[in-house]
Design brief:
The chain is an alpha/beta fold and 327 residues long. The chain is built from twelve helices and twelve strands. The chain folds into two domains: 132 residues, Rossmann fold; 142 residues, Response regulator (Rossmann fold). Strands 2-1-3-4-5-11 form a six-stranded parallel sheet, with helices on both faces. A six-stranded mixed sheet has the order 7-6-8-9-10-12, with helices on both faces. Helix 2 links the parallel strand 1 and strand 2. The chain is elongated, with a radius of gyration of 22 Å. The N terminus is likely disordered. Bound molecules: alpha-L-arabinofuranose. The site of alpha-L-arabinofuranose has 12 residues, from helix 2 and strand 9.
C-alpha cells in the first residue's frame, strides 16, 4: 500500500490561498474542480478509442476538468504533455505510457512539483515506485497465458495442416510497450506445456490494423504451414484476416486466429468464425481512475496495483454477448 503524503501539503496551500482570497495561478479557473492532465498513447486501435471515451465521460461525470493530450504513439510527445501539465499546475496527472522505459526524469519533475501521478492501462519499468501513486490496468501476462492455454487445450483442432506441428505466427504490439512484452511472455510460458506448438515468426504490427495486415502478408509469403496467428490485439487480428482472405484462405478455418481485447469489431469477427478465441482486455478504466484520483487527492491510502477483471470469449459466447456490448 502507498500513502499519498505530498497532497496534504498542497491541499493545505490551496485552502490557505482560498481563505486569503488570493488565487494561485493553477490550471483551473474553478478552484473546486479537480484538474487532471491525461496523456494518452494515441488512437491506434478500437481499444484505445473506447478507453479515451471512457476517460472523457468519467471525468465529466465526476466533475473533473480534464486536460487531454494525444501523443500519437510517440513517447517524446507524452513527455512534453506531462511537462506542460506540470507547468499548468494540474492537481493530478494520469497517463498510459507508450513504452515501458525512459520515464524517471519527467516523473521526478512531477514529484518535485508535488503533483501525484497515476499510471493507467500500462506500466512503467522503473525501480523507483515512489514516482507514481498507483497503477490501474490489466494483467497482460495473464492475458497472454489465457491465449496460450486455449491453444494448448485446442491443439488437435489447431493443427490445420495435420503435420503434427502447430506453427504459430505472432503479431506483436508496439515494440517496448508493456502489453507487447507481457503478452508475448505469458503466451510463451503457456504454450511451453505442448512441445508441438512453436512460434515460428514474430514481428510488430504496432497494434494497428494496417500493421497487422502488412506483417501477415509478409508472413504468408515467407512462412510455410502457418496454423495459427496470435495477434496481441483485435485490430492486428482484423488486419491479418484481410491478408489471409486476400491470399485465398479462410480465416478461422485454414488459419486459426487468437486475439486480445474483445472490442466490437473483434467480437463480430469471432461471432462470424473468422477469429477463434479472444482474451478480453477491458478499456473502460475511466470510473476507477477518477475514484483513485479523488482518493489520492484526499490523502487516502490506495493500493499500489489495481488489476482490471477480465474474461475470455469463444464464438458462442461472442454471439451471446454482442447485442449488449458497449464498445
Ligand atoms: O495497452 C492496451 C493495448 O493497447 C490494447 O490491447 C491495444 O489494442 C492497445 O493499442
Amino acid at each position: 500500500m502507498v500513502k499519498k503524503t505530498v497532497t496534504a501539503a498542497s491541499m493545505l496551500l490551496v485552502s490557505v490561498a482560498a481563505l486569503a482570497g488570493c488565487s494561485d495561478s493553477d490550471a483551473s479557473g474553478d478552484d473546486d474542480k479537480i484538474v487532471m492532465g491525461f496523456a494518452q498513447v494515441g488512437a491506434e486501435s478500437g481499444w484505445r478509442t473506447a478507453n479515451t471515451e471512457s476517460i472523457k465521460e468519467s471525468a465529466e461525470e465526476a466533475g473533473f476538468e480534464l486536460k487531454f493530450s494525444d501523443a500519437q504513439g510517440k513517447q517524446e510527445n507524452q513527455i512534453k504533455a506531462i511537462r506542460s501539465f506540470i507547468q499548468q499546475k494540474v492537481d493530478v496527472i494520469a497517463f498510459s505510457p507508450v513504452v515501458e522505459t525512459g520515464w524517471d526524469a519527467v516523473l521526478q519533475e512531477a514529484k518535485r512539483a508535488n503533483i501525484p501521478v497515476i499510471l493507467t492501462d500500462r506500466a512503467v519499468d522503473s525501480e523507483d515506485t515512489s514516482l507514481y501513486e498507483t497503477f490501474l490496468g490489466s494483467d497482460f501476462v495473464l492475458e497472454g497465458e489465457k491465449a496460450g492455454e486455449w491453444l494448448v487445450e485446442n491443439a488437435a483442432d489447431s493443427d490445420v495442416d495435420g503435420d503434427g506441428d502447430i506453427n504459430v505466427v505472432q503479431l506483436e504490439g508496439t515494440t517496448g510497450a508493456a502489453p507487447a512484452i507481457d503478452r508475448a511472455e505469458g503466451f510463451a510460458s503457456a504454450i511451453a506445456a505442448d512441445p508441438a506448438i512453436e512460434v515460428t515468426a514474430s514481428q510488430t504490427g504496432d497494434f494497428t490494423r494496417d500493421g497487422g495486415k502488412q506483417v501477415m502478408e509478409s508472413f504468408l509469403n515467407s512462412e510455410d504451414g502457418i496454423d495459427v496467428v496470435f495477434a496481441h490485439n483485435d485490430d492486428m487480428g482484423l488486419g491479418a484476416i484481410e491478408a489471409i482472405e486476400a491470399a485465398g484462405l479462410e480465416p478461422g478455418v485454414d488459419v486459426k486466429i487468437i486475439t486480445v481485447d474483445a472490442v466490437h469489431d473483434g467480437m463480430e469477427a469471432l461471432a462470424e468464425g473468422k477469429i477463434n478465441f479472444i482474451v478480453e482486455c477491458n478499456p473502460l478504466l475511466g470510473p476507477q481512475l477518477m475514484e483513485l484520483a479523488e482518493q489520492v487527492l484526499d490523502d487516502e491510502e490506495v493500493p499500489e496495483r489495481v488489476v482490471t477483471e477480465e474474461t475470455t470469449f469463444t464464438q458462442e459466447q461472442a454471439i451471446e454477448v454482442l447485442p449488449d456490448r458497449k464498445y
